[in-house]
Amino acid sequence: MFGVLIAARKDPDSFSSNECEFLRQLSDHVALATHQAQLYATLQQAYDDLRHSQQAMMQQERLRALGQMASGVAHDINNAVAPIALYTDSLLEHETGLSERARGYLNIIRRSIADVGETVKGMREFYRPQDRQATLTQIELNPIVTQVVELTRVRWRDLPQQRGIAIAMRMELQQPLGAILGQDNEIRDALTNLIFNAVDAMPEGGTLTVRTRSSAETVQLEVVDSGVGMDEETRRRCLEPFFTTKGERGTGLGLAMVYGMVRRHSAELEIDSMLHRGTTMRITFPAAMTESAIARQTVVDERAPRPLSILIIDDDPLVLESLRVTLESDGHKVTAADGGRAGIDSFVEMQQRGEHLDVVITDLGMPHIDGRNVAAAIKAASRTTPVILLTGWGQRLMDDGDIPAHVDHVLNKPPKLRDLRAALSRVIPQPEEQ
Predict the structure, then answer these.
(1) pLDDT score of 298
(2) Which domains, and CATH codes, for the chain?
(3) Among 93, 136, 192, 334, which is least packed by CB within 10 angstroms?
(4) Cα-flanking dihedrals φ and ψ of residue 173, to 5°?
(5) Percent of all residues in the chain with a pLDDT value above 90, rounded to a whole number
(6) d(C-alpha 126, C-alpha 128), whole Å
């Protein structure tokens, strides 16, 4: 029983038997109708739950596909960037005659290289969130905003002006602004994407505003444009990977990357938009409240270790040459081998000639004989020779706990000179430790 039908009259015994039968049948019909209404409501709820689950699964599959795609191309991207990173670090350190302008350009190149590496690494984390708290530092948003606005000047000012379009840039930066815990390269990359999207949304020109403000609990970053805006369907789907309204000009990855950064920083993303009334993208970060909340950073020893005898193995000639030049600039004796088989043969020949070898640096993804097999062969011939695996898949191996058994240290591409030195210092005992 889930209900009661009550019929009443003032006079006693005023219901005839026909009326009582009518009320009984009416109760049966009302009960049936109520039961059907309950079933319908339950069915509708089940349908809504199923639809939401399907949408969540589709979103997760898109993110998974994006992450797997990023992981697949990471090796080639990082290989291409590695020589630029090594030569840039070497120039900044060894070329003392550089002008301040040239040194500034090289620093921008180095920062951009780091952003490329972090972007490739971050794309994969869409489908498998990582605990990145250990890599967060206390940072200020205002200097990042100033950097990005300057770096993107060509996109929001020069290129539109060539087409006779004027975009006014406004920066409304609260001073002082509360600090946040984050990764500056990820925030810089996300802000760059937001500015590019805002410019694309103003084909006839307009006003682009970048705003920061903070409270005791939060720090907000806003990018506001006066462009074409979005309808509700576009606004709902704009964070989906590969969804784009730009046709062949768009990849559909820009806002998906922004969303990934927001998730990794425990932040919130709000999108306010109406057709023909512009769009506001608002990221709200938790404020860094105490010093104890700052993640501890690993102190990297940037000193070059003592001169070493090093065998480097890679199938990419540009990476091989840049590694050789960089290591030789630090005073090391370097032997280069093109590929896994050549690397193993070189190691055996050096042993037969009685030449001492301090360390082997090898790539992972190589044809015929990959880095795992190289490491195993090196350790089989000399258990005490350290092996460093230098690969574009380094972060994935470390995240997955899939470091090969015969590898002493994993270094991610593109390598920084200080990280390369730190890796050598880590696997080679220093004189005071011997």
Answers:
(1) 41
(2) 74-129+298-434 (3.40.50.2300), 137-293 (3.30.565.10)
(3) 93
(4) -105, 120
(5) 24
(6) 6
